[in-house]
Specification:
There is one protein chain. By secondary structure, the chain is of the alpha/beta class. It has 3 domains: 6-124, 3-Layer(aba) Sandwich (Rossmann fold), CATH 3.40.50; 159-383, 3-Layer(aba) Sandwich (Rossmann fold); 388-488, ANL, C-terminal domain (GMP Synthetase, Chain A, domain 3, 2-Layer Sandwich). Helices cover 29% and strands 25% of the residues. The protein has 14 helices and 24 strands. It has helices spanning 16-26, 40-50, 62-68, 90-104, 121-124, 160-173, 192-204, 217-227, 236-244, 268-278, 352-358, 397-405, 441-449, 477-488; strands at residues 6-10, 30-33, 54-58, 76-80, 118-120, 140-146, 154-159, 182-185, 207-210, 258-261, 281-287, 294-297, 310-311, 316-320, 335-340, 347-348, 359-360, 363-372, 378-383, 388-390, 393-395, 410-420, 424-433, 460-463. Strands 5-4-3-1-2-6-7-16 form an 8-stranded mixed sheet, sandwiched between helices. The longest helix is centred in the first third of the chain and has 15 residues, at 90-104. The termini are far apart.
């Protein structure tokens, strides 16, 4: 691998991920964070934009990567197997489960060709180590794709300085008890939140307990009781699912002393209930991909409020006028949140104009509207951008709409986030059909499932004769969303 080469990690939370992450960085490469659930179409778009040449993938995700390779810049693929890191008897049982899952997905038999451009992860351990390429602090280490403030996915260039700084900032936020902690990481490592959790735990010399599927709540409860983690970072949907689990009372969660909830707003009642069952403390934090990601959190050893908290060490925050970022607004008034600190990205990959739009004199414009109280605690009120936060993942309406528009029966389409008690928000599509055509809700959802990762697929489809538009013809997503929110509000 050459310095500066982009390496896509198509990996869940298995030991392959930290090995490939740190190996890439030590060789001077740039890690491209990749959701393993991406379809071939989504991988193609990502690989073209980043110029990916090397891919490290778990074998069960091989089919989509193989289909994307021929039309991209990918030159070599390293394939791993989860069984490599399992002990007996799981090592013998795992292939049976893998076969069952792949059959269900219509991807069995799994055929990985014997080609020069395909290497096995396990075989690399027997090869001589490559040369290290020392990186400069401001060299790009990771491309974390995000919609930014425009909704068009782009790579946030996170440097070695950014990532190390944020690892230190978040690590120092957790009171030191004098002995190493045990950190349960069920947050996906390909998500920027999971990445900083891993780096923070590494900085502190903590033991990391990896779990690959945050949806397996029963397994996570068993893991907590068996492995006795002391820190359990997560997203609100995970904590909500734990509280709703029918057998929760059978498990001892008392080892957990601290939880930091990120990626989506944390309901106050969830915080109180989780504090009660663990005896520890759960607090809400805030961040965004462009800031590596953490910028704010409630103190774990101080007053906790129903908001995103106060800025992390060495992080400055202010509120600016929504229409004129050069004007700061006083505390108590609504404004766009702007942040400054060593964790703020270098810019967007190959997008200087969009970089200039969000980075102003060292300040990052977050696109989120907030207020600040007399104690310096910030609260997010609304979003300027239309990003949908579904189970902690960013879903960009434009990307969903582009898929909807490719359906032969769709004339117009809009996607918005609607309130969801479990996911926080879920995707709802509004569709206007072409004259003389027909399509059902099931047809539209099935069409999207073939072209979008599961968390991006609309959960609901509403057919309409027209969509609300501005005077210049722009679809008013906010109006559609407001209608849905109004349906959820109780009638006085």
């Amino acid at each position: 691998m050459k310095p500066g080469e982009r390496v896509s990690l198509v990996l869940p939370n298995t030991p392959h991920f930290p090995i490939a992450l740190f190996g890439t960085l030590r060789a001077g490469g740039i890690v491209v964070q990749t959701n393993p659930l991406y379809t071939p179409r989504e991988l193609e778009n990502l690989y073209r934009d980043a110029g990916v040449e090397t891919v490290v993938v778990l074998d069960r995700f091989w089919p989509n990567v193989a289909r994307a390779k021929p039309v991209t810049s990918v030159q070599r693929i390293v394939v791993g197997d989860a069984a490599e890191f399992l002990k007996t008897p799981l090592r013998q049982l795992y292939p049976l489960k893998k076969r069952k899952d792949l059959k269900k997905a219509g991807q069995w038999p799994l055929i990985i060709p014997s080609e020069p451009w395909v290497r096995r992860f396990a075989d690399l351990a027997a090869t001589p180590p490559g040369s290290e390429s020392p990186a400069a602090l401001d060299d790009v280490a990771v491309l974390q794709y995000t919609g930014g403030t425009t909704g068009t996915p782009k790579g946030a260039m996170l440097t070695h300085r950014n990532l190390v700084a944020n690892a230190m900032q978040t690590a120092l936020w957790i009171p030191d008890r004098g002995v190493p902690d045990r950190v349960l990481v069920a947050v996906p490592l390909f998500h920027v939140y999971g990445l900083t959790v891993l780096l923070s735990a590494t900085f502190r010399g903590n033991e990391v307990i990896l779990h690959p599927d945050p949806r397996e709540i029963g397994v996570i409860l068993k893991l907590i009781q068996k492995a006795r983690p002391t820190i359990f970072p997560g997203v609100p949907t995970t904590y909500i699912a734990i509280l709703r689990h029918p057998k929760l009372s059978k498990y001892d969660l008392g080892s957990i002393r601290a939880c930091v909830s990120g990626a989506a707003p944390l309901p106050n009642e969830v915080r109180r209930a989780f504090d009660k069952i663990t005896g520890g403390r759960i607090v809400e934090a805030y961040g965004l991909s462009e800031a590596s990601p953490a910028t704010h959190a409630n103190p774990l050893a101080g007053p906790v409020k129903d908001c995103i908290g106060i800025p992390l060490p060495d992080t400055d925050a202010k509120l600016v006028d929504q229409d004129d970022a050069s004007r700061e607004v006083p505390g108590g008034r609504l404004g766009e949140l702007a942040v400054r600190g060593p964790q703020v990205m270098k810019g967007y990959w190959n997008r200087p104009e969009e970089t200039a739009a969000v980075l102003r004199d060292g300040w990052l414009l977050t696109g989120d509207l907030a207020t600040m109280d007399a104690d310096g605690y910030f609260a997010i009120v609304d979003r300027k951008k239309d990003i949908i936060l579904c189970s902690g993942y960013n879903v960009y309406p434009r990307e969903v709409e582009e898929v909807l528009f490719t359906h032969p029966a769709v004339a117009e389409a809009a996607a918005v986030g609607v309130p969801d008690p479990y996911r926080g928000e879920s995707v709802k599509a509004f569709v206007v059909l072409k004259g003389g055509t027909t399509a059902s809700e099931a047809d539209i959802i099935a069409f999207c499932k073939e072209r979008l990762a599961p968390f991006k697929v609309p959960k609901q489809v509403e057919f309409a004769t027209n969509l609300p538009k501005s005077l210049v013809g722009k679809v008013l997503r906010r109006e559609l969303r407001d209608r849905e929110v109004a349906k959820e509000e109780p009638v006085p």
